[in-house]
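Quick one, probably user error.
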């Protein structure tokens, strides 16, 4: 078995539906023989403990979060945690990016934004010009129960999501 080149950091504990997605990612990472560490942005001890800093010290860490939850964590001296330790952060935007101005207007230098909606990616590009690393990754989702092309379906719009303000 090859040595793990990357070590993943995930966040849980803020929104249950995103916790479920994180659990799936943790399972996939583990199935690949890779390790991960879970923090809870609402519980500072989870990202300020000796165990967490020991995990970071091995190098090769990557933060992978949903809806920027966890990207704005700070050390006691006020520096962004991820920037201070040169950890690249990937935030998977599953809700509209207009909800995340504090993370995207002045992003940390190592922030990567992943959108699963082309319009969301266009919004980030237009309204958050300081986001330098922006990716469109189409959502795999579930197979539709019909083979009818999208343009010919009866339902013009299906909304799945929430209408809440930014979550720290």
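Nope, works fine. Designed sequence:
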């Amino acid at each position: 078995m090859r040595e793990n080149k990357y070590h993943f950091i995930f966040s849980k504990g803020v929104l249950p539906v995103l916790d479920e997605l994180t659990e799936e990612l943790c399972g996939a990472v583990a199935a690949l023989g890779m390790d991960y560490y879970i923090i809870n942005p609402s519980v500072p001890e989870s990202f300020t403990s000796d165990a967490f800093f020991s995990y970071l010290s091995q190098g090769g860490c990557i933060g992978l979060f949903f809806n920027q939850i966890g990207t704005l964590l700070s050390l006691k001296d006020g520096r962004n945690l991820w920037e201070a330790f040169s950890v690249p952060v990937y935030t998977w935007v599953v809700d509209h990016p207009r909800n995340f101005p504090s993370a995207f207007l002045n992003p940390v230098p190592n922030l990567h934004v992943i959108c699963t909606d082309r319009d969301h990616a266009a919004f980030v590009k237009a309204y958050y010009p300081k986001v330098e690393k922006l990716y469109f990754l189409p959502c795999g989702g579930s197979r539709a129960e019909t083979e009818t092309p999208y343009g010919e379906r009866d339902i013009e719009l299906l909304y799945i999501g929430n209408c809440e303000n930014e979550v720290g």
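Helices lie at 16-31, 45-48, 50-57, 81-84, 101-104, 118-127.
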